[in-house]
Amino acid sequence: MSSGPEEEPVSVLQRFEKRLEGLVEGAFAKVFKGVVHPVEILNAMQREAEAHKAILAGGRTLVPNRYVIDLSPYDHSRLAPYAAALAQELAQSQAEFIGEQAWTVYGDVIVEIERGEGLDTGMFRVTAEVYTGGDVAPVSAPGYDQGGYDQGGYDQGPPAYPAYDQGGGYGPPPGHGGGRNVRLVSGDGRTYPLQMGSTVIGRGDQANLRLPDVGISRRHARLDFDGGQVVLTDLGSTNGTMVNGQRVSAVALNPGDMIQLGTTTLTFRVDG
């Protein structure tokens, strides 16, 4: 009986499933009953890496490090509360898979989960690309991407967060308002005003708010400001995002909250 490389993806999948079980205490099982399942997504990501290998000088094999997952509107709305946590688990499992194959990537493995208009429930689309920190080289996903993927279609405008805005009495926190001065202040006193819409924090060229901190991923976290509240979402960063000392996946910020990314601390301020 040989234990060839074909068994390695199974072990990654098994570990991924195990981590999913403990992630939200069975919530995933309910969320994904009858709709797309995360293991199917990870399988597709592994196939994408396999399909788009490139041989570099010295014989190393380069594979995509950035994966955008489009879910149907229905699946995306059900998944929204868990999207950041799932993206982080998918990124970790894909990094393990790539490591086991002894393949090479540029920088961090990045996974983004987006709303794919026109996809039927249970359908999803994976777009893989090699992201070098500057220009991107998009790679279409045969078999999933029928009709092309609109680059730049992500990170435009804040996504829906059903966990925050469906009933439940979650309104704009005190001190928030459309006419207020919402900003982040760093430990050394630098101020970063927040605009309406999405702001990506990271050290890469595609981040809107760039921070020169080696502990911060190229696309580390995203702030979504709708004029009433600001939601901070970790984008599957390597070292995680902390708010007031607690690691977070997605959280609505309150004035005075301390955000830590790498060795950088930012204080969330609301004036007016």
Automatic annotation (TrEMBL):
The keyword Phosphoprotein applies. The keyword Phosphoprotein applies. Gene3D superfamilies: 2.60.200.20, FhaA, phosphopeptide-binding domain (DUF3662). Keywords: Phosphoprotein. It comes from the Bacteria. InterPro entries: Cell_Proc_Reg/RNA_Proc (IPR050923), FHA_dom (IPR000253), FhaA_N (IPR022128), FhaA_N_sf (IPR042287), SMAD_FHA_dom_sf (IPR008984). Residues 199-248 form the FHA domain. SMART domains: FHA (SM00240). Coiled coil: none annotated. This is FhaA domain-containing protein. It comes from Micromonospora rubida.
